[in-house]
Each structure stands twice: as C-alpha cells, then as structure tokens.
Amino acid sequence: MDKERDSQRETLCLAVSPAGAKAATGGSDSTVRLYDLHTHQSILTCQARTVMDGHRSRVFAVTFHPERETEFISAGWDNTIQFWDSRQEQAVRRIWGPHVCGEALHVDAAKNQILSGSCRTHDSLEVWDYGSGLKVCDVSDPQQDSKIYTCHWLGESHMIAGGQANTPAGGQDNTLAVINRNSLQTEGRLGGLGSPVFSSSVCVCGKRSGLIAVSSGTSVYLLDHHK
C-alpha cells in the first residue's frame, strides 16, 4: 500500500462483501479501495482514468450488491453513482444525478433496485434500476423538502430516509421517515430531534427483524417498525 497517500486520506465510508471476504472503503481522495479481510491487505485501488470512469470528488457511500460478490457501487459529492467490478480499477458505468453526502446508498436484490439520498431540497430520495441505471421514481413528501443523509430499504414494502427537512412554516425539522414503497406515502416519522439524522441501520433477520437504529447528535434511537 501507499502509506504516505493513505495517511493523507480521510476514510468516509465502508462496506463488506456478501461473503465477508472483502471490504470496500471510500474517502476524501475520490478513490474506492478494496481490501482482503483475510490477509488485511489492500488488493485494489478503484479510481478514475477519465471523467467517465470514476469519482472526481469525495466518496461518502459505498455498498455491495447483496447477491454479487464482485459488484459494488459508490456515490459522493460529484453527483454520480459509480458501478465497480472488483476485478478492475475503473468504473464500468455510472448514473448521473445523486449528490450524496452520507451513507445514503442501498441495493435491494429482490427487485434489483438502488435507493439513493441526496443532500438537496429537491429530488432528494430516488429509486433507480440497478441493471439499466434508469430512474424508477422520485420519492417526495408534499409537506416537507428534506436533505437526506441516510436511507435504507426496509423489507420488501418500505424504505426509511433520515436527514433535515424544511417545514412549510419556514423552519427545519430533523427527522427520519418510514415510507411505503408502493404508495410512496410516509407512514411513520420520528421528528423534532436536536440534530440532523446522519446515520441509520436496519436489522433484516432474526427476532429483531424490522428494528431500526437512528443516530442524531449524541443520541441513538431504536424504533420497532412493526409497532
């Protein structure tokens, strides 16, 4: 590894491959780095060779396809989602649009769709087709324009999105929303928090399936989706 370059790089996100053999990290130097979790060695630096095949700014989100060990995607400040194959250094394709500033990138293997959240007050939560890269829909709340910092699929029927919303009265509300995937309507909301929602996690199996963890400021909130 290039230790001098690593020491100057701020790591901003991490994801582990479905089989648990590899980890991908994104950071402040616009690269995505792949590591072997058995040897703890860097095995690949994924970076742009041209303006079309990699990131040009900070990378804030990276995630593997849940059913494809060699495929992962990343997003960040350069308004792109980049698609990577772990066997090559340059991105294989990209989606233009999302301005991602947090862990707001998630793949649903069942429907082969991507959920992305952007730090902006319009078109901030979007669904994309993984195979074609085409937008499936915008997920908008008519009552609030939200900057999204974190989002996840929640089972087959819902999604969650957290960040900071502008209210109709001109104020701001730090909030996490639970949204129906079919109707695109908000069905639950945790709001009035002291700080924006910057991270969240969903338990996908076992007796805690559907449990949502949310961080805001110095607090962590646990929500039971089924209740």
TrEMBL record:
PROSITE patterns: WD_REPEATS_2, WD_REPEATS_REGION
The keyword Cell wall biogenesis/degradation appears for this protein: no
Span of the signal peptide: none
Alphabetic keyword roster: WD repeat
Segments annotated as WD repeats: 4-45, 52-94
Alphabetized InterPro entries for the sequence: WD40/YVTN_repeat-like_dom_sf, WD40_repeat_dom_sf, WD40_rpt
UniProt-listed PANTHER family: CARBOHYDRATE BINDING DOMAIN CONTAINING PROTEIN (PTHR47822), F-BOX AND WD-40 DOMAIN PROTEIN 7 (PTHR47822:SF2)
Protein name (database record): Pre-mRNA-splicing factor prp5
Species of provenance: Merluccius polli
Lineage: Eukaryota, Metazoa, Chordata, Craniata, Vertebrata
